[in-house]
Amino acid sequence: MAASLHKAQFPLNLCEIHDKKELIGYCKTCQEKICSSCIKEKHTSHDWETITDILREKKHSLPRECKRIRSEQLPVLRKELCRFDRKIEEEGARFEQNKSSLNVSRQEYINEINRLFDLKIDECRNKSETAVNSFKEKRDALKQKVGYVDMMTTALDKDINTLPDHDILDMEKEMRNELEKALCYSADKYTCTTVFVPGRINIQALKDIVGEIHSVSMEEMRDIDKYTDTIMSVVPIANTHAWILTGGTCKFHPRLIDMEGEEMKTIGSLCTDFIISKNGDFILTSKTKCHVSVLTEIEDKISPIDTKPLHPTFVSLTENNDILVTMRDDGEQYGLVPTSRRIVQRLTLTGKVLNTYEFREDGKTRLFTFPVRTTENKNTDVCVVNWLSGSNGELVVLYKDGHVKFTYRGEGLKSETFMPSDVDSDSKCRILFTEKFTKAIHMLSAEGKYLCTLCQYEQIRPYVISLKDDDLWCGFKEGRIKVLKYKR
């Protein structure tokens, strides 16, 4: 039955290029059957063997290879099928949870706004159904390929000695092509999260009362696995290139890499952290030298900004092309005394101090214990990762004038301890941050409400992030770099 089935799928054993000459050889370079004229022309320098010789090898090795595929690779692919099923179930449960939140809020509102709630439920359902359909489509495509590879390997295993010679080669090629396509499927590459955020009860703004539907999907575009040292900073400059800073033997030298991880250029200057201004200049911090320096595109240094006696650590760029720099004194990392200085400063590129964030409104209570990463949100809020100890931290968000807007300490996360490591924001002022114990990238609203987990990992930990247009570059503690397509 297998023989008759596959005879209908594969062409006759004659060359379609050279007057239907008999196909007598197999080109390993091109993985195709060839005739005597093909050998003399296109394939003269390629690695090829006669059909007889290669079939002798295939009949010996192919059944064993098919058994290996069924025992090792097909179980992995079936596991991915289960993971897609789990994502579909989770999205369905998430819709039910969102719908429940909407209905609870509905009871608090007047009858006139029921129509708006119904519209929001429909919107939420449509987005969730879109996500479910997307997962189902990918799952079904993988399921089809798994079934096909299973069928082919079974046929080749059982009927290797009865199948026509050329069918064996054609079937193997088709099997391997489908297997290669199937192995590209991974449930981790696809994420789509829909979250309902209830609004405030305000009779003057009924639409705000109903709230918003946040729908963000992430798809892994690149996985660069070329480094073993922690990725300390990543600064994308285009969709295809980014500057990075790593630890290890090459630590603290910014390097330009492409999407494959190939190094294009290295900056000779040592630094603790760096950022690139809107006109292409490098702004580098030096914790040991206590200064912030500006390096032009042609690597000419402008007079450094002296920060003595404070040590600048991390730097970020604002919308106005100013910089935010975290600084601290020589004291113990987490042990504060009355003379300790732990600040975030907003500076111009010429060194003029625009704002110093150090104390709360009373002028006495410290804002920070150990300020690490910082970023300016699109609404001019200042978001600061503040470490309280070696295993505990918080996210402090300030208005531009320095007043505290909110402090986030992990509410909504499934973890008893909270240790953020980096922070960024998107065009809708939502806050993205990496977190140590959940090994994930999470999202907050601009008001500090936990929205969702964008992506989470089992073995590796997201450490730094940087959003450029729709590409989210993520550097990991273990040296990996991933480029995620961020769809809002």
Automatic annotation (TrEMBL):
It holds the Pfam family zf-B_box. InterPro entries: 6-blade_b-propeller_TolB-like (IPR011042), TRIM45/56/19-like (IPR047153), Znf_B-box (IPR000315). GO terms for molecular function: ubiquitin protein ligase activity; zinc ion binding. SUPFAM superfamilies: B-box zinc-binding domain, NHL repeat. Keywords: Metal-binding, Zinc, Zinc-finger. Residues 10-51 form the B box-type domain. PANTHER family: BONUS, ISOFORM C-RELATED, E3 UBIQUITIN-PROTEIN LIGASE TRIM45. This is B box-type domain-containing protein.
